[in-house]
Specification:
It is built from 18 helices and 16 strands. The protein is an alpha/beta fold. A hairpin with a 5-residue loop joins strand 13 (about 395-400) and strand 14.
Length: about 500
Amino acid sequence: MAITGRTRPSILRSMRDLALLPKAHLHVHLESTIRPATLREIAARNGVTVPGHAGDGPVSYAGFRPFADHNALVRNCLRRPEDFTRIAAEFCADEAAQGTRYAEVTFTAAAHGERLGHLEMPLEAVLAGLAEGQAQHRIECQVILDHSRRRSVDRAWRTLRLATRYADHGVVGIGVAGDESYSIRPFAEVLDAARDAGLHLVHHAGEVCGPESIREAVTIGHAERLGHGIRALDDATLVEDIRQRAIPLEVCPSSNVALGLVPAFSAHPLPLLREAGLAVTVNADIPASIGTSLTEEFTRIRDAFGYDDAVLAGLTGAAVDASFAPAATKRRLHEQIQAWLGPVRLPLPGWMVCSGPRSLRCPCPGPPRSRISTCPRSGCGARSSPPCQPTGITCTCSLMKRRSRRRWRKIPRRSSPCGGGSGSGGCASGSRSPRPSASRNSSRNPGAARPPRVRSPTLSREAQTNLHATLSLPTSTLRLPGSSICATNRRGVTC
């Protein structure tokens, strides 16, 4: 049974950088991602007053309606094509900077088009900005057009026409959003037409109102994903229905807290949704409006619920599976997530780590400021000035810097011994040291003595499995010679 994040030491749970975790972002509103400085510049250029507390840090709202009123003021600042293009390009840059590799951004295109008297202009400008951002950053984006429940059916039809017209330019679906006290029944015919046109359907439901709003989204709206959906827990029958239909939830914890729908982050029902067997994805929803980001969401989830890296990787993997990305993109994202979840590369305090094609790890005594040592291609003990020099049954770790692909130099200001005998905390007596490469002198004297080869004692399979679960390292590579932990290479060479 896997060790959960609640039982692992916090220092091991926090080894990997969550900003580097490859993410898929499925629930984020473009108008709520605008940088504060950008919003002020655009508002000043267009002669519009900037909404209060724009960019002043984390913000809370007294319910959904105050947030919607604030968001309307933000949208009113956007007037010209270059405004929309700029915020879309900056969205790509900001998402890519926090590890997002794929995003489906929501945009209220028809509302902007009607407001500005040019239905297509805002969407065309946003698509141009996304194309620019994707070309400059390592990210792939698609668009979902949303329609407010409070607005007319005619506008919903215009949203559908925009989606079908620009389906070949990055628009993948439509959805109903806004105040959930308004039913989506009036839009049933529009949603039927969208399904028949091959568009994906994603609706906001179960955020403010209860299970009935979710049932409408699933039955009338043909929802393939649910925006939020946290109120599904109010009805066990509905939970079972969602699980049977395999409908993923776009969960946005910080947004729910900021809008007063959940009293505190630690009280968010995300763990209960996972325990109920539902497909849960993590999203930021309105990051600029509440002072968060997708990476911050994952960080808060780890801190609040004690999830380890494997669980966090599973959450972003669920987002990849729930996305409307092409199959090739999904495969690539899963490979990148697995690569992030690979063996821990950062050292624990007091460790010296040699990482390379022939990996060698040995805990070296010394202060926590010990640094990572990167070995030559042929592994430790190779070339001149090796980072791990065998001396009998002990080895010496020295910090290295690479001058070029094949040239290495020793940093003379610090060298840390990795062992020195049994009980020293390093490569203890009875462990096998890495083989030294044949130097020029030894090549001239084939009979030169070599250090004795002593096999290292191995852990039982059960002990290896437990240690593997703790350190997130491959089980087959773990041995415990004396008191040191070493990783094997393909040939089974240990420290």
